[in-house]
């Protein structure tokens, strides 16, 4: 039984602020993209429903103007950049916070708490200064929370084995649950959107073949084609297949990390174990951000 429980709420205020900022920006980005794709489909459908109606054509033109506005909004505000930058800041803060709590390098001097606390706060400032473009999006009420919480101090005061137990339960197992759950979620969503795209493409092919038999019968093939393209665009934006592979790999790597804890018996071994583990945790996010830039 762990003597200290550590959750994300016990991390520095900068983590809370960056995390909520990232979540908000992600929602804005995907909601904007969702409305953009849906309105494109509706705009393509209106001329088919009202072929000789000027109001139908006008409504379709208005919808295309709205979708253009959404594109301009996404380009100008760049919520996807805020999403990724916020996630990067939050993960960086989480990593150094766990290193500080575990007395891992570079915060391993147990007899100079004031000194390592100053070093930790200095590193928080560096993270923030390297992401100044995010400052306008950070929440003020979360950011004023103390940088080193009472729970963090309590964890740092524990013995080696107790700290290791806390790390395994509230860091390693937490990450394992996160990655395995996300891998399964993205696998299901990737399959769902793939088959939706296949169904729409198949429907368009059937309509075209039927038109050969009945040339006078008009099908909304353009609308179906637009919907198929929208489904594919949504799948690519969500990157369910890539995320499934990345999260599955991370989950398996964490299982191996957990096994390495058996060899931890002193401060040096605990420090090396935590540093190695945190490097593995941050690797997936770093690689994902790099793929996004590419």
Automatic annotation (TrEMBL):
Q: What are the SMODS and SLOG-associating 2TM effector domain coordinates in residue numbering?
A: 12-163, 167-288
- In Swiss-Prot or TrEMBL terms, this protein is called DUF4231 domain-containing protein
The regions listed as transmembrane in this protein's record are 33-50, 56-74, 193-211, 217-235
Which keywords accompany this UniProt record? Answer: Membrane, Transmembrane, Transmembrane helix
């Amino acid at each position: 039984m762990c003597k200290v429980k550590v959750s994300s709420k016990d991390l520095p205020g900068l983590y809370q602020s960056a995390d909520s900022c990232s979540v908000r920006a992600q929602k804005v980005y995907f909601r904007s993209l969702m409305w953009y794709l849906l309105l494109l489909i509706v705009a393509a459908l209106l001329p088919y429903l009202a072929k000789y109606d000027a109001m139908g054509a006008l409504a379709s033109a208005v919808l295309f103007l709205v979708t253009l506005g959404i594109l301009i909004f996404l380009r100008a505000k760049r919520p996807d950049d805020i999403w990724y930058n916020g996630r990067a800041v939050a993960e960086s803060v989480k990593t150094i916070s766990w290193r500080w709590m575990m007395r891992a390098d570079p915060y391993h001097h147990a007899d100079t708490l004031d000194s390592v606390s100053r070093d930790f706060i200095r590193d928080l400032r560096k993270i923030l200064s390297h992401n100044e473009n995010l400052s306008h999006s950070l929440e003020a009420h979360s950011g004023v929370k103390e940088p080193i919480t009472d729970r963090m101090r309590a964890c740092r005061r524990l013995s080696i084995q107790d700290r290791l137990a806390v790390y395994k339960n509230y860091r390693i197992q937490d990450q394992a649950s996160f990655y395995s759950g996300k891998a399964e979620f993205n696998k299901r969503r990737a399959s769902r959107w793939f088959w939706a795209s296949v169904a729409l493409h198949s429907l368009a092919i059937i309509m075209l073949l039927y038109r050969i038999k009945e040339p006078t019968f008009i099908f909304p093939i353009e609308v179906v084609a637009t919907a198929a393209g929208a489904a594919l665009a949504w799948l690519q934006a969500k990157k369910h297949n890539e995320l499934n592979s990345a999260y599955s790999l991370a989950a398996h790597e964490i299982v191996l990390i957990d096994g390495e804890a058996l060899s931890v018996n002193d401060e040096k071994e605990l420090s090396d174990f935590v540093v190695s583990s945190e490097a593995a945790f941050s690797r997936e996010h770093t690689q994902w951000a790099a793929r996004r830039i590419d």
